[in-house]
Amino acid sequence: MSYLGVGVSPGNVPVYHGTSLKVIDRRVRLAELVLRILTCGLALLCVVLVATDSQTKEFFSIQKKASYTDLKALVFLVVANAIAAAYSFVQVVRCVVSMVRGNVLYNKPLAWLIFSGDQAMAYMTVAALAAAIQSSVFAETGQPELQWMKTCDMYAKFCNQVGEGVGSAVIACISMVGVSCISAFGLFRLYNNKGKSDARW
Amino acid sequence: MSYLGVGVSPGNVPVYHGTSLKVIDRRVRLAELVLRILTCGLALLCVVLVATDSQTKEFFSIQKKASYTDLKALVFLVVANAIAAAYSFVQVVRCVVSMVRGNVLYNKPLAWLIFSGDQAMAYMTVAALAAAIQSSVFAETGQPELQWMKTCDMYAKFCNQVGEGVGSAVIACISMVGVSCISAFGLFRLYNNKGKSDARW
Question: In what residue span(s) does the Casparian strip membrane protein domain sit (chains A, B) (predicted)?
């Protein structure tokens, strides 16, 4: 029983005696890796699509340029997804090293660190996405009650590219939420072990 | 070992042999109850504050009324918090019954149901809050680049009350995230038990 224990390695976790359980564990780790790669790639795609997006229009000889920096929500989306992409890249490396070496130390403090990081990333990307979608809706439809005009009529190309970026962020976000559930599983199943095994993987 | 097993009751979980572990378990359950009550109360407060908020102004003999329905993000905030309050109320009742009876069945399907519900509520309240904050920032500061005017200069009383509602929603949201971590703990520690005990609590 190691309810309060620290330094439990994953070697202590798979006290499985059935082959099917090992298979399930391998599938969970593979799902984690795939989801992290998906998060990393799509969050990066979102950053590139939104941050490089701009459109210039001329109104009576005055040039006006639309850029993601015009909307704080888009800046938040870019920053949040850049952080999520960098974080996911580090985690992908950790997952690959763990799978290749097979006997990586996986203690409770590390599991808590990964769990906390994943939770923070998941909620951050959800918040950034919600704010960006809210702003995009205003830009697309306007808000007549508040005299907020539509801007996507003028900057159609800019808005379309932002839409693609938001689309990538949606899938990245769903993957991140999935990853956070897997890391919660990875952490909390370390609790309530009745005993320890010396097996390593 | 019940990695794939269903129908594991919480009686199987506390295979604790130390009193301190029982104390910790009681504290976790108490923390869950307190957080759920906090979520329920503050989400309800947010609903009342935002949904009852309105202010009428007269512009050249034309009356204009500001209401939360003018902003879809505030409607989303009210709906999300109403759902979270109702859900938390049901969960508070479940927690109290579980604590009073002491031998409530707590099997894996139920634990999965609670975990899924808590995750959905946590992400929903975070998304609603982020969208509402984004809209509130536009209303408070405007967005000169897009010719979106400030509206809080005209409807100061309305905006203040929305601000109080958003404040309640922030704390409700943090509590909900805490609750979702506790239910993840409650679910995933059911996995990887090496044996079963007949103890009930």
Answer: 26-174
